[in-house]
Design a protein that fits this description.
The protein has about 325 residues and is α+β, with helices and mostly antiparallel strands. Helices cover about 20% and strands about 30% of the residues. The strands form six sheets. The chain has a four-stranded antiparallel beta sheet. Strands 9-12-10-11 form a four-stranded mixed beta sheet. Strands 15-14-17 form a three-stranded antiparallel beta sheet, covered by helices on one side. Helix 8 (about 235-240) runs antiparallel to helix 9. The longest helix has 9 residues, at about 175-185. The chain is globular and about 60 Å long. The N and C termini lie far apart (about 70 Å).
Length: about 325
Amino acid sequence: MAVVLDWHDYDRRADWVRKPSSDDILAVWPTGALKQGISGEAIINCAVTNQGAVSDCVVTEETPTGLGFGAAAIALTPQFRMKPATWKGVPVVSMVSVPVRFHGPGPGRSLTGESKVLPVNLAWATAPSHVDVLAAYPKRALAKGVGGRSTLACEVSRDGRLKACAAIEPDRTNFGFDTAALSLAKQFRLNVVTPEDVAATTKLVVHLPFTFDPAMSDQRQPIVGKPTWARLPSGQEMQTAFQKLDTPGTVRTVLNCTVEQGGTLGGCEVDSESAPGAGAVALTLMPRFKVSTWTMEGLPTVGGTIRVPLRYEAEAAPTSTK
């Protein structure tokens, strides 16, 4: 059951079209808790987009804590299919609170021999860009300004590509969104290099959402998702870079960068800096950043622009006691 959080007087509140099954929940059940037969619950708050996808989910409650039930609940969200709220007959974004219950298996149950679900928001080695999604968008749907959504269940091959993809819930709009999603799934690839990487692909599946928004046809501002950080520079790397400035106090700088394939950041430009040279130092750190190239609500990030704020606290010089 989804509980609507907004006080807005909608014509129709967001509601379920498809809920995750017990098998879906089992696939993301925290391994340690599952082996011990520990049940749990989590409540997540999410935005429901005007296409029925969920985004920006955060864990608000988790019982018991520290076993990963909150993260597991968020891992389920690509499979959420919801009917968006409407206001004056037009789909609008709304907020919902979703309880997810992990109840049932006894102690000793494990995922050995069963599929394990891979998170969606990864720094895929390759993933569709905004341009790719727009090119695959069903032409008749785009011409009519119709949006849609499809979620595929795919296996992972030994070379990191997706195989045996099929729609979890068939698209009944007859606009061809499932066909478009299947064509885009061919562009995803994980970075499989070592024998350990190859072994890890065994029995790995991904539930991959795709959101098609008619606003994607507006080339002035690419419709992309909000990326999440896959890698950040360490504190030592930040200190080594910024201590060259020899500037006391707090140093702040903001960069604007383009998300590239693999989740790297390119074309970075300094937007602001609190001290001369701070932006140039920040630019040297950009190779240490990496972001997700696909989002939980099914949108690309490749080709989009991201703002990267950096803050460095310089250590105060020691005070003489003489």
